[in-house]
Amino acid sequence: MTVTFRALLGASVAFTLTGAALAETTITVATVNNGDMIRMQGLMDDFYAKHPDIKVEWVTLEENVLRQNVTTDIATGGGQYDVLTIGTYEVPIWGKQGWLASLNDLPADYDVDDLLPAIRGGLTVDGTLYASPFYGESSMVMYRTDLMQAAGMEMPEAPTWADIETAAAAMHNPDAGVYGVCLRGKAGWGENTAFITAMSNSFGARWFDENWVPQFDQPEWKATLDFYLNLMNSYGPPGASNNGFNENLTLFNQGKCGMWIDATVAASFVTGKDSTVADSVGFALAPDNGLGKRGNWLWAWSLAIPASSQKQDAAKAFINWATNKDYLALVAEKEGWANVPPGTRTSLYANEDYAKVPFAKMTIDSINTADPNNPSVKPVPYVGVQFVAIPEFQGMGTTVGEIFSAALAGQKTADQALAEAQAAVTEEMKASGYIE
Amino acid sequence: MSTQSTRMAARFMVAPSVLVLLVWMIVPLAMTAYFSFRLYRLLSPDRTGWVGFNNYVWFFNSPDFWLALTNTLMLVGGVLVITVVLGILIALLLDQPVKGQGLLRILVIAPFFVMPPVAASIWENLFMHPQNGLFAALARGFGAQPILFLESYPMPSVIGIVAWEWLPFATLIFVTALQSLSSEQLEAAEMDGASAFNRFRYIILPHLTRAITVVILIQTIFLLGIFGEIFTTTQGGPGSASTTLPYMIFKQAIAAKDIGRAAAGGIIAVILANIVAYFLMRGLGRHLDA
Amino acid sequence: MARAASPRRKLITTLAAWTVALIIFFPVLWMILTSFKTEASAVAMPPQFLSADWTLENYVEVWGRSAYPRFFWNSVVIAVGSTLLGLVIAIPAAWAMAFVPGKRTKDLLMWMLSTKMMPAVAVMIPIYLLFLRFGLLDTRIGLVLVLMLMNLPIIIWMLYTYFKEIPAEILEAARMDGASLWNEILYVLTPMAVPGIASTMLLNIILAWNEAFWTITLTTTRAAPLSAFIASFSAPQGLFYAKLSAASAMAILPILILGWFSQKQLVRGLTFGAVK
Prior knowledge:
The complex is a heterotrimer of chains A (436), B (290) and C (276). Chain B has 290 residues and is an all-alpha fold. Chain B is 73% helix and 1% strand. Chain B has helices at 4-36, 54-61, 65-95, 101-109, 116-127, 134-141, 149-152, 154-179, 183-191, 196-223, 228-233, 245-255, 259-284; strands spanning 38-39, 49-50. The two termini of chain B are 19 Å apart. Chain C is an all-alpha fold. Chains in contact: A-B, A-C, B-C.
């Protein structure tokens, strides 16, 4: 086998240009193709001015592909990346596995105590910070002030789900191409599963009880799914089972949604240059049901260093630059305050200039009301608001998302969907040894 | 007429191909077979061990398995039928003396140049989208409700997209095959009063037999492994309505990161592909001889 | 089978053929048009044909945001390299099977095709581990190898059917003249087989150019081809149809131009010897 392999290598050399040897200080940074990350790539002159000895190679990929590539790399010890962009779901799991390098020794000017406590907590395992947040988000209600006004209504700052339903009914006008409410329906653990799980918290539902027994057969889940399906079937856009974050963002920007409950980072898009409704968007906290919990999640795209990276110092220098207070100031100076990566630092929200950004207050209030350690009304054995931070969740979350998506498409009733979800999750939890 | 020495030489010349393909087949296959009996989850490296046939049992017990199997065969069959039938019709048309034949051909084969994920994305976002797609605009233009392609007809939509990608391939094979059909034979038949349909049925179709065989054989091999288009458009849904066997494996490997189960699915897929290939060869093999 | 046709019939068939061709081509055309619109105009309803906001901004942004030349060059090296390497290995094999057929030649051909039956995702981790072990991750050599192996069966099939069409008598005559086996291949067979080899090459370059699973899974920066370039523009946050269309157009344009110039070879190459 080895002989053949060498022979093949020899044969192919003739047709292939070998890549230039890497300089000592070239680091490979893997990142998602979201706007804030793209913007960072345009501001690299500042980094190079401060660190002329470090060169950064970017791997920019769509979220799903990126996650697939970095997970394969880190789990097999591939060692291809020096800095990874990962989320609050991965960090605790990977940190526990010993796959990530500790970031406790970042220089003093990084000011770790300035990080928002909720975000910092989600990226820390047993006192060790394993990733530095690049931007954080919660979820909230975005609604059309003009349509609400036309309907003679006013959105409370902290609405209940009943308020949402009333507002949706009032704004729903399919003949004019306006749908009362747009919510995620596309299957995926980071799409509809994330939304419905966060929503279920406000209905008092939970994925597992204290003993890891799946809870989809409980009345709280039935109430959640019934409400979601009814709301979407009555006031949602047709074909919603294929709508994820991007699709809904497009619809909202086109003026086709009365309301949209989704990530707080969307606020800068719906009020930005691509939006046809930029001047008439209002924000409110994610709805609750009077049970003390709101249906908003917590997420942070964060930068981490694989433990296997040979260039820890250069990687740390990069992370310190990209997630430092100075970086926020740099973005503000070049692109304006509205484009600063939100949701990571207390000091940003104390800044008077930033306070003028229309969605700043609602974003920080939403982040502050999310509690990954106590996500639901009843106690849970897991960490995570819109996910369960165990390795098995990605697979289960995808399955549950498919089942809910089928229910939204009208292929299943809520009862059937919940029974199937219960069966699938129970089987997986048994196979993984959580329950007998 | 081949002598002992040419036969030796021939063997020597086939050897490199056989050798590299053997390695390429056996090494990953052996590793996959090994993993298929293991508990191997990328995110839980501390939990490993032999699990016997558990991974296979999981597949067979999965509520989606038989649906996925049917969907896989439907996808292959549906795309084959569309590409072969439309391919022949378009080839007949392109074979006529028409103006701008060169440009026509490049237009017809253009879909073949489009990367599959791009093709799927074009169809999903620019055509089938219920609010922003061209089809929705057309439907509204006629005063009808837009069809929810990916929600109400996920499998036919996926089949349509894949068929669009493969139609150029089939068309071109048929076009070239038709060029070698002798026109005297057709003219003689026309003089004898054979109808257009009969000319097609008794002269053109038999002439195309070998071309059809090649199209079916090559396309089947490619179509049995398709998952990218499904991932881009429907994510196998709604529910599992458009889940195929490769997509099921994809979900285990990529979403659940369960390499053991994905490996078991891979072995099942290989067995399925071999069964399909066996019947294809039994049914079509004789048409291949030169 | 082209026959003399009445002008009226020719007009009708020309119209019909153009209609069909435009329908098939339309999605590509629409994508190209979309790439020149602003994002808002790209999703406007009703669709904008002539009234759209035309702009080059998408191309400017896509060009500025990523190292397109590097992705492009990697695609060229990988697609051409894997095809050439495949030809080097396949030509002798196809020659031998075509001119010295044995009892099991057909089985052998079928077996070669069957090596393509394993779904890529199922062997993702095994291949990844092998690449890691041999230091091939993110190298063009690694991708050249994988794509060559993937397409080798197709190359052999195509060449086999072309070689089959070459009359055996010519080879016999050469042999009578005392040509050595090597000379027979080099001076007699190869010139006759050039069109077949050219079209095989073309089809395989296209297949390798369009491969979008292994090329993304096994690369990061140095060896990443245009498939990875596309993956950096699909589904970001925000409106993206126009920019994705521009990136897609940039990815398929080189291969479309190549196809345009070698259209005749391609037609021949795609037949797999279906023509006698």
